[in-house]
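> run fold GNAT family N-acetyltransferase
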Amino acid sequence: MLEDDIKLLVKNELAARKEDFIAISDVDAYVKKLVSMAEILTHYSRGRMIGCIAYYCNNSQTRTAFLSLIIVSPESRGSGLADVLLDQAIGWARKNQMEALALEVRKGNERALHFYENRGFEVKYEELDIYGLELPVCESVSK
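> ok
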């Protein structure tokens, strides 16, 4: 079941890297919200979820999609799966006429920050324990 598979990935990651992953107190409620409201793309190998991305493309005022979660199992890191999932989310944001894709990264999560900056995201704001990043996704149109 999708919800259980996402919970397992999130709980394992929280156990391994609590301070720099995501700040949530109720994994079950967080995943339930994602499953009911977000666009979710997954990748399975041998019947087991090894990657997932969840994002929202519903802000018609700012036309900014928001990436809530991207997670790849430890044994699949470095395989390019995070790039594949992010590319699909960017494509979906473009299809839904979003202008940007935004996300937040905890300051201790240097690996994620480096990944996003290498993909063209720029830090737009900084708070006590997070960076807010954004990537323009709209296709430029010549006039």
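The chain has one domain: 2-136.
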